[in-house]
Task: inverse folding
């Protein structure tokens, strides 16, 4: 190598000298493989020409890891594939940016942690028992300074000796599925129990007898094998939970670890029947105790033998304020007998009477593996909530159980014992210490009779030491509502404690175990319990210290043959998974687009290609992916760089067909800032090269004579080009004259900018990646006027505001359909189209009267058939027709625009007056409004184009629902009604008088300007019936709904007031559009509209839902019908209109004086509406208004607004029942008057009458067991409209009673029976049902592979 002198007069390689002059890449690497290093950073400043594999070497040296045992990935790209370690590409070509910070992450490779450079062996043995490297140096080595490296994250005060990861511990973690930490803790404890693990390995699975998926022992066996032999940091438990019969929802249920232990052991016992392991659980975990009662007079003792799998120890005795301080204290309390005396005396079989007795428990036999449950979860009867007891309770590392075995009072020589497995459990039976966790099945009774044995023989003396060694502490952190479990487990091989916290395994010390005792960290005096730690031991596992029984873990070489085969299978599966991950890691996944030449729509897919595949290979893959085989030749396709958002072709790849895709796309990434487009050419065309830095321009040629706009022509230009140069470019592409050319840029929606400064650049004019321009070149004088006044601007403005709508017309009878003329088909010649339009319009005028008369005479059934429509198909608009290549001008022929004739107007007025249509059709939704309408946009457009309507002046008055015309509404009413008016969605009027389609006299405003409206016949593809017709409507979206409907009149065959417009949304949901003066600005291209027959709302009309109020029915609110009320209508007029509707639709034949209307607020009845009240004057009315109809038994007593109508109900405590509701009409709000009326009605003396206001929603239901005490009886007020009553409106509920009437005396049985009835009644009515939090789901393990769902259950 040639050497040259450096500035320091030293010889350095010439390569390095040149490298110092090139750009440098600053790399900042975060080590995420360990919790202790995640906050540290490695910094490397390298020449840009450094290769990726050299970069790996530098990072390995600096981090102190063995190269090849870790991966490097981009830090800000989410789940991204790592950099190719063997890559020979330079850093710059791999996506690194010179002169900027490049953030990367150092991660595990294949789930294994990086090896420390000084570690020869790399990992401990597979069993996790080797601790020879425990004291060696852990973590990154001290790092030398590197050339160009300005800083280092290592600190002399930082210690790496505490970093304990998988490669040091040798143990594998378990992945938490969601809330399965309790399961992980128990599984790790069982795995670390040698006797259980070895016995599980010795069991052999017979695949011929059972499905391996549902076999719990086999899935546990697989899991244990993976825990012992896998190289991963953590493994999944989904196969185990699947064998339990659990679905994914179980992962979100947290359960008690002790409950899981019991359920899992039961399931294993069932699965292991008739095998060598049939009695394994009992041999390891089952102990025996005696539940006895001894008479203190004669010494007679009755008892039975019970077995247990764990011992529940009370933390704090019931009613006590002091908790037990240690496990030993709790054990002593567990076996402490209690005396049964007083009312709890025991009936002695020998004495034949009730005697004082002693009741307690004695341990007869302790299991080999002793499980202690610390009962930290309790119930607080003060707050009625579950609580967790965080009191301190110590537990020893070695527990001597000999003091607790067979402790009894031996002083009485008359003590006798008998086998009494069925002895009655009298007294408290240690209710605060004993739990139902014990198995009390008589089937496990030993049947031991000790009558003939001496006392010395009866007392079980420990044959050997009863010293137990602690090896597992299952810790709970959190509250009774939820928390987190993890396990602290001691290895029996090296006596080292480890923390198994889901996927994280680390070494811990004895001090960490002591921290799980609970309680506060220091003395805080009186408030110590408030500051107690919520992280404490919940379940303890001890093993008997017996050298003859204590087993060691099976080593891999000692595995049974079936386990060795299982290990081999799992190893192969892991290798296959590793290879698949490697393929995934090297696969580029990028969005692919293609304009399909047959389907004529932009297709989208995801191209997945290996990074080593060439561009030619990727093109062939994309060709097959887009299903183009047999459609176009492969050599007519190429892949180009594409920006889908801006529809911009960034660049093409000429001459790079053999370049690998990984290099072409800038490496393997989880997402790319660009896409790929499969471009297709015709065989006689040649591909145009696209160079980086160009901008895409879509050029639309405008023809002022035909007023048409051509399909776009794509032109590529540069941002630094001038307007003059740009015009020359367009002239070459379109053949237009550049000298007379006008260029208009559409920067955003409806923002048109004329480009007239010759030397201004495209960048200065606001061009971006993708642009849209309109060009016109003619010798007309239009270019001499101001741009906004020119014909070009008007044409472009119309083009920008025109949308395409699919309109489904209502089905008609064959007779009317035959006489109706559909819209003429659009032809290429505009003149022909206009002629056709004239002809069709004339024919429609001739048919209107006939169609209207026919529709008037239709029966109700035929009308319902008319209202059945089919939704239009999801036809896509192709790109060729998206810009209206030919748009006829409304100026050429005024008949081309919907211009109602005198015949139409007269027909419409006649039909309005006759009004033979049904009152109203219910919408498909309770909310019959167009929810997508933007009130902000539409208000602006309505204000700007308030005169944009297609209607001529209509001289007829506006008919209202009550038969009155608009002139009958007085001006005073109108002005007063506007005072409290609110904006409504389901009314045909608006707040702003200037925006209304109608003037003060109800006439439709005249308009001099016509907005664009053009129709074409449209054939549905969804198999609609022959009577179903559809239109394709091109319309200016600034048109109002009223004008739009009038344009549709000839095609529907009825006046616009006799049909309704429904907008169709996703899933074919329909909502009615009713705001007549609102524009179509909220609609967009290809929206669907359905026309239904039926009278539409007019100005000042509102939809109203009528409900019947049945005060004494179980369901007091019953829907009757939908109707229409009008502004200015009186209540009596609305009642008159309701009468025939009620008779026809609800079979209610009522007299107008025997029912009333009243306010409805949810389910509560309110103000009674008097006959002379006027809507919008005395009564505020709104969209989708709801009103109560109440049938009266007598003529209306409410005559004035000063009166008050309350609903009263008598409570009879002697009979424990409530009487029916009765209405009381008060002349004032006086309490005295209320009591007088109630006394007169009920016969209760005035001085004995008490009342209370009902609570909640009508009918204010309350249990008869609670009403006597719970209500605020006889409030000390003189008027009803003050606190605590606040009765200011009609409809309040008042309960009253006789204060001298005694409450019925109920027996306990009667009270319980009444409570059940009341609970059932109130549950049905929905009252007094308090909020219940989510109930905890019972933990179950299904032995048949899954739960059987009850078909009767929801």
Result:
């Amino acid at each position: 190598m040639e050497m040259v002198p450096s500035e320091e007069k030293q010889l350095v390689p010439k390569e390095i000298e040149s490298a110092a002059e090139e750009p440098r890449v600053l790399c900042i690497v975060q080590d995420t493989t360990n919790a202790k290093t995640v906050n540290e950073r490695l910094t490397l400043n390298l020449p840009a020409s450094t290769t990726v594999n050299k970069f790996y070497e530098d990072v390995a040296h600096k981090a102190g890891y063995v190269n090849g045992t870790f991966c490097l990935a981009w830090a800000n790209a989410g789940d991204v594939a790592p950099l190719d370690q063997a890559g020979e590409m330079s850093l710059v070509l791999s996506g690194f940016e010179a002169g900027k910070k490049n953030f990367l992450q150092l991660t595990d490779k294949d789930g294994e942690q990086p090896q420390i450079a000084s570690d020869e062996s790399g990992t401990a043995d597979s069993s996790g028992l080797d601790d020879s490297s425990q004291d060696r140096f852990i973590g990154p080595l001290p790092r030398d300074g590197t050339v160009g490296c300005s800083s280092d994250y290592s600190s002399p005060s930082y210690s790496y000796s505490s970093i304990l990861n998988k490669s040091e511990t040798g143990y594998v973690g378990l992945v938490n599925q969601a809330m399965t930490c309790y399961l992980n803790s128990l599984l790790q404890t069982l795995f670390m129990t040698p006797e259980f693990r070895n016995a599980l390995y010795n069991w052999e699975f017979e695949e011929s007898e059972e499905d391996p998926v549902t076999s719990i022992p086999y899935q546990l066996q697989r899991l244990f094998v993976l825990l012992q032999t896998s190289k991963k940091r953590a493994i999944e438990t989904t196969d185990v939970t699947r064998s339990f019969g659990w679905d994914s929802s179980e992962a979100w249920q947290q359960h008690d670890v002790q409950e899981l232990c019991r359920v899992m052991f039961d399931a294993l016992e069932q699965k292991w029947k008739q095998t060598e392991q049939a009695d394994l659980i009992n041999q390891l975990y089952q102990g025996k105790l005696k539940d006895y009662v001894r008479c203190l007079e004669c010494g007679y003792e009755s008892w039975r033998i019970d077995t247990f799998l764990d011992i529940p120890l009370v933390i704090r005795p019931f009613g006590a304020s002091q908790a037990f301080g240690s496990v030993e204290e709790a054990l002593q309390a567990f076996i402490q007998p209690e005396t049964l005396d007083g009312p709890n005396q025991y009936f002695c079989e020998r004495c034949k009477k009730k005697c004082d007795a002693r009741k307690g428990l004695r341990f007869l036999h302790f299991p080999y593996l002793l499980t202690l449950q610390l009962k930290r979860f309790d119930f607080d009867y003060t707050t009625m909530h579950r609580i967790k007891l965080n009191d301190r309770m110590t537990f020893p590392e070695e527990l001597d159980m000999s003091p607790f075995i067979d402790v009894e009072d031996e002083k009485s020589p008359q003590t006798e014992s008998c086998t009494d497995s069925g002895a009655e459990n009298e007294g408290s039976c240690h209710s605060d210490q004993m739990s139902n966790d014990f198995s009390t099945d008589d089937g496990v009774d030993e049947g031991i009779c000790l009558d003939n044995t001496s006392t010395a023989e009866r007392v079980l003396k420990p044959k050997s030491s009863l010293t137990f060694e602690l090896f597992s502490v299952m810790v709970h952190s959190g509250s009774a509502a939820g928390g987190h479990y993890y396990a602290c487990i001691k290895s029996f091989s090296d006596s080292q404690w480890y923390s198994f916290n889901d996927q994280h395994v680390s070494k811990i010390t004895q001090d960490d175990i002591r921290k799980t005792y609970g309680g506060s960290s220091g003395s805080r005096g009186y408030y110590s319990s408030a500051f107690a730690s919520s992280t404490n031991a919940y379940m303890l596992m001890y093993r008997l210290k017996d050298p003859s029984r204590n087993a060691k873990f099976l080593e891999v070489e000692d595995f049974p043959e079936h386990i060795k085969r299982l290990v081999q299978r799992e190893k192969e599966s892991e290798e296959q998974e590793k290879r698949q991950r490697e393929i995934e890691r090297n696969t580029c996944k990028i969005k692919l687009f293609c304009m399909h030449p047959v389907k004529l729509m932009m297709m989208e897919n995801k191209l997945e290609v290996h990074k080593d595949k060439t561009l030619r290979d990727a093109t062939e893959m994309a060709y097959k992916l887009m299903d183009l085989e047999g459609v176009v030749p492969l050599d007519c396709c190429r892949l180009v760089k594409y920006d889908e958002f801006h529809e911009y072709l960034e660049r093409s790849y000429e001459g790079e067909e053999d370049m690998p895709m990984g290099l072409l796309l800038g490496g393997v990434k989880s997402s790319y800032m660009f896409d790929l487009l499969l471009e297709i050419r015709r065989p006689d065309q040649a591909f145009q090269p696209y160079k980086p830095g160009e901008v895409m321009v879509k050029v639309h040629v405008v023809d002022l004579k035909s007023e048409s706009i051509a399909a776009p022509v794509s032109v590529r230009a540069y941002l630094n080009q001038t307007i003059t140069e740009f015009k020359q470019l367009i002239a070459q592409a379109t053949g237009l004259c550049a000298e007379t050319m006008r260029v208009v840029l559409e920067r955003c929606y409806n923002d048109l900018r004329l480009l007239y400064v010759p030397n201004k650049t495209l960048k200065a004019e606001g061009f971006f990646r993708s642009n849209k321009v309109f060009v016109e070149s003619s010798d007309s004088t239009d270019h001499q006027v101001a741009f906004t006044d020119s014909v070009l601007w008007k044409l472009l403005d119309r083009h920008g505001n025109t949308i395409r709508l699919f309109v489904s017309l209502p089905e008609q009878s064959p007779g009317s359909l035959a006489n109706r003329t559909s819209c003429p088909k659009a032809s290429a010649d505009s003149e022909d189209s206009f002629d056709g339009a004239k002809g069709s319009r004339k024919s429609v005028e001739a048919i209107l009267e006939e169609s209207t008369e026919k529709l008037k005479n239709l029966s109700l059934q035929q009308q319902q058939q008319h209202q059945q429509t089919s939704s239009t198909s999801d036809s896509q608009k192709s790109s060729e027709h998206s810009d209206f290549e030919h748009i006829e001008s409304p100026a050429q022929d005024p008949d081309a625009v919907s211009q109602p004739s005198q015949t139409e107007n007269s027909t419409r007025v006649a039909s309005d007056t006759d009004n033979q249509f049904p009152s109203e059709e219910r919408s498909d939704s309770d909310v019959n409004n167009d929810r997508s309408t933007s009130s902000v946009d539409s208000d602006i457009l309505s204000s700007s184009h308030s005169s944009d309507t297609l209607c001529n002046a209509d001289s007829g008055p506006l008919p209202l629902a009550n038969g009155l015309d608009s002139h009958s509404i007085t001006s005073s009413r109108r002005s007063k009604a506007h005072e409290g008016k609110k904006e409504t969605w389901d009314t045909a009027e608006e707040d702003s008088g200037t925006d209304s389609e109608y003037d003060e006299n109800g006439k439709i405003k005249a308009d001099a300007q016509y907005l664009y409206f053009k129709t074409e016949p449209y054939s549905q593809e969804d198999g609609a019936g022959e009577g179903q017709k559809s239109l394709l409507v091109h319309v200016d979206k600034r048109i109002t709904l009223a004008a739009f409907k009038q344009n549709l009149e000839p095609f529907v065959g009825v006046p616009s007031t006799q049909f309704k417009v429904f907008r169709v949304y996703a899933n074919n949901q329909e909502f009615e559009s009713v705001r007549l003066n609102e524009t179509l600005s909220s609609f967009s291209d290809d929206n669907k509209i359905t026309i239904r027959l039926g009278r539409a709302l007019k100005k000042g009309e509102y939809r109203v839902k009528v409900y019947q109020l049945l005060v004494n029915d179980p369901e007091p609110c019953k829907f009757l019908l939908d109707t229409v009320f009008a502004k200015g209508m009186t209540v009596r007029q609305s009642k008159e209109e309701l009468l025939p509707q009620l008779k026809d639709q609800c079979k209610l034949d009522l007299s107008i004086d025997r029912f009333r209307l009243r306010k409805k607020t949810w389910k509560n009845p309110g103000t009674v509406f008097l006959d002379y009240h006027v809507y919008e004057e005395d009564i505020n009315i709104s969209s989708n208004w709801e009103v109560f109809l109440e049938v009266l038994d007598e003529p209306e007593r409410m005559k004035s607004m000063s009166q008050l109508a309350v609903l009263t109900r008598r409570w009879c405590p002697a009979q424990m029942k409530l009487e029916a509701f009765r209405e009381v009409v008060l002349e004032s709000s006086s309490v005295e008057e209320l009591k007088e009326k109630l006394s007169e009605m009920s016969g209760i003396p005035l001085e004995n009458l008490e009342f209370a206001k009902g609570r909640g929603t009508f009918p204010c239901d309350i249990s008869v067991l609670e009403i006597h005490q719970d209500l605020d009886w006889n409030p000390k007020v003189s008027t009803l409209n003050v606190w605590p009553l606040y009765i200011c409106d009609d409809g309040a509920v008042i309960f009253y009673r006789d204060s001298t009437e005694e409450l019925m005396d109920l027996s306990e049985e009667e009270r319980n029976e009444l409570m059940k009835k009341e609970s059932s009644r109130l549950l049905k009515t929905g009252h007094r049902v308090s909020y219940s939090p989510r109930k905890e789901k019972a933990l179950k393990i299904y032995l048949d592979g899954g739960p059987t769902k009850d078909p009767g259950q929801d």
Remarks:
- The chain has a mean pLDDT of 75.
